[in-house]
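If you are new to this repository, start here. Below is one unmodified record pulled from the training split, so you can see the exact layout before writing a loader.
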Amino acid sequence: LQFFNSRIALDLTYYKKISTSQIFTVNAPPSSGYTQKVINLGKSSNEGLEIGLDLVPFRSAKGFNWTISSAFTLNRNIILDIGTLAELNYGGFTDLGSVHIAGQPYGMIRGSTYARDSLGNFLVNPATGKPILSGRTAAIGNPNPDFIWGITNSFKFRNFSLSVLFDWKQGGDMYSFTAFELLSRGVTNDIENREAIRVGPGVLGDVNTLKPILDANKNTIPNNIGIASADYYFTGGFGPGGAAEVNVLDATVFRLRELSLSYLLPSKFLSKTPFGSASVSFSGRNLWYLAPNFPKHLNFDPETSSTGSGNSQGFDFIGIPSSKRYGLNFKISF
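And here is the target side for that same chain:
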């Protein structure tokens, strides 16, 4: 849709696709002579919305021009059926990786968990003051973002042009081993006063039954056992040195993706040359970002994947820090 001599333009796309008989590699009984087999399995739904909105707040043939272009994308990829399997593990390691579960989003993060009571409180070992491992793995995060929104502002005044691209990725979980290592070893300002005695959240629990311990009135007992900071954060405690589930963080990120400034040489300067046009531009990428749900002093960029471009997403295993990039470009035409 376009309005007011193309000063407002709207592009709206909705899609829904059902995929069946997808190709998976699954474990096979060793008695068959093979340890794995490739089969057609599963059914998934991929549904989404894409919105493109363009605005022209100012327009002038010889003066100042301002154009805004934005793109909003929302996608929901749900596993509908995986046959007789309770879950289909792929990618990662024995106790940490990606998993498909019927009724859940595509590629959930799977990892070790702590035992909890019916209200979701950690069960704490009264002998150590540390949370009790459940002894099982489960889906602990969804790596798929809630939405992605990008906005480009383009300004032009005579022969100068300025373009600024800002984007926002909301949600999407990440298992960050980088955050785990830096926090648990106390090498950032996010964890200070390491000599303090700390009391973690949760209620006292029985390590044998994985049930909460009740007082004389049949009520749970809040954890009241203090432990050293090193135990709290590093050696199986409440911090990043514990079960995989406490290393999952929200990967929301705001980013100044790109900024570009260019200058087009006036045609009169080229009248006695073989060139039809000439321009020079300076650009910078990844100049600023903010991940508000990661520890502040980590300055961590969650736009990374240590498992490459495959189907297993949402993992950071000491990834390479992101960097700024600058470029200078000369362009001529004949």
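Two things worth knowing about this chain: The helical segments are 177-184, 229-233. The longest strand covers residues 36-58.
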